[in-house]
């Protein structure tokens, strides 16, 4: 039987891979002139190496799917320990205070560093490169982002768009103890209630920019990870429709963007369900071992994946703003994109010793 440690090693590899994927995805969007408004207008400016980079970066166009993977991973990791504890004991007790403490220690040190970094980069741009200080780094906006109470009046700070998913995840963490209370006694009822609440809010068409509405709309996708944890703990017997579910993964990729984000993300998450169970199951095969070995190579990035996720966009945007200050247009080659990736990884790695490693609680 695969041990908890072995499963977490695979999950760590997936987390590192997803974080690095998002960094490349945004470098492609922020630090390069783009395919339609750039390459198609003057393909003759691209030499063979530039075209090779163009094809390489095209692999990283599925940024939304990578974020969905993060949601599923989060639900799986958060619920995994609780699911196994419930299955293995009749006297399960949930330590709410410890849970909140762990979430605070995990989320806030890197987030505070992220806010400080954004302010420093903005001040550097203002004093050295004569760029205006952005309004979206006002004290009110920073406080709203640090408390996760963002509304249509307070958007993500510094145009750091990845922070939207952090906001959603934080409020899901706050809702989770209630879900666990239901899940513990009526395991299927919890999932049914989540789907029902999300559908009601979706069709009532409330303003989805309010954080409490957005939280419940993304909650079903997060709960896919919790469902996987229940399957792995044998609290739920996984139905044998593996082939049908696997088909949903490529279909959801094809349909991505044709439907509302919440629906397409949930469909993609469902497609990931059998993939996760396959990778984390006890079944041994040559293909599975090869895939797990490949995923394991990205465990290095897992240790600072969270810091990397929330600071890479400000760093890349800073480099782009400086470049535009002197050249007025983004480059057709990819050296600025590679520089954005390298700078993001380097800063995240160096800072994670103080933002993550000192605060994280070790898993057994």
Describe this structure in words.
- The chain is mostly helical and 364 residues long.
- The protein has helices at 4-30, 35-39, 48-58, 63-88, 96-129, 139-147, 163-185, 187-204, 211-232, 242-255, 261-280, 286-296, 299-302, 305-327, 335-355.
- The two termini are 16 Å apart.
What is the SS-derived class?
mainly alpha
Distance from first to last alpha carbon: 16 Å
Helix content: over 70%
In sequence order, what are the helices and strands, one letter per element?
HHHHHHHHHHHHHHH
Task: Give the percentage of residues in beta strands.
Answer: under 5%
Rg computed from alpha carbons, rounded to a whole number of angstroms: 21 Å
In total, the number of strands is 0
User: How many distinct folded domains?
Assistant: 1
List the helices and strands and how they pair.
Elements: H1 4-30, H2 35-39, H3 48-58, H4 63-88, H5 96-129, H6 139-147, H7 163-185, H8 187-204, H9 211-232, H10 242-255, H11 261-280, H12 286-296, H13 299-302, H14 305-327, H15 335-355
